[in-house]
What does this fold into?
Amino acid sequence: VYTRDAHRCQYCGHRLPPGQLTFDHVIPVARGGHKGWDNIVTCCIPCNRRKGDLTPDEAGFRLLRRPRRPAALPHLTLSLGLHRAPESWRDYLLWDISLDQA
It folds into this structure.
């Protein structure tokens, strides 16, 4: 997701290193959103906190780009810099499950 979104928060546009980014479900799962590629975007921590369980419209946000399933993931590991990621982030970077098909 970070690679697809060029390490840029899809709400405020700030480009940040992976350790300062998180994922956001555009339509919150608690409100019926799914866990597919087309509902997950890169988000900075301040925007994620501000958005909470709201939709982007409700939070006053506008997406920079609509989320989409990437065509290919060949350089994902290199782009994320997994060899430098803090141990506490590995559960979030290396998912043991597949995202729902979008």
